[in-house]
Design goal:
- With 134 residues, the chain is mainly α.
- It has one domain: NinB (NinB fold, Orthogonal Bundle), CATH 1.10.3790.
- 11% of the residues are buried.
- α2 packs across α3.
- The chain is built from five helices and two strands; from the N terminus they run αααββαα.
- Strands 1-2 form a two-stranded antiparallel sheet.
Length: 134
């Protein structure tokens, strides 16, 4: 069960659901402040922009996303079973603000480094881009 409680009524409904669960072993319950992650519109724009970059450069859309994320978000080192592993940072944990910054930097990077224009919804060329790549 996962839910976001915005009102006292939401909390009461969650408590009722918990009370109705059959306990067959230990149960972990976590309550923490809700943090809005990236929006669906932001995520969709990222993937369309990756398709544009892929089309312009001749690579696959997944490769374009890997390149963008590695270039902008960088890498991190994690502990693997046989020692440290380096991987690119993921977009999955970014909140709305951080994801917006990623899109800002991606737009500038594509323009400056690749010579590719990535229009936003309020910019010329956006409708055409969405029609072609969505």
């Amino acid at each position: 069960m996962r839910r976001i409680a915005r009102t006292a009524a939401d909390l009461e409904a969650a408590a009722r659901e918990l009370a109705e669960l059959e306990l067959s072993g230990p149960l972990e319950i976590i309550a923490r402040p809700h943090r809005q992650t990236r929006s669906a519109a932001q995520n969709a724009l990222l993937h369309v922009w990756c398709a544009v970059i892929a089309d312009e450069t001749g690579c696959a859309p997944d490769a374009a996303k890997e390149a963008v994320c590695a270039e902008i978000l960088g890498h991190e080192v994690i502990d693997g079973p046989r020692g440290p592993i380096t991987r690119r940072r993921s977009t999955s944990g970014l909140g709305v603000g951080a994801f917006g910054e990623l899109l800002d930097r991606m737009q500038a990077w594509a323009s400056l480094e690749l010579g590719i224009v990535l229009p936003r919804p309020d910019q010329p060329g956006y409708a055409e881009m969405m029609e072609r790549f969505r």
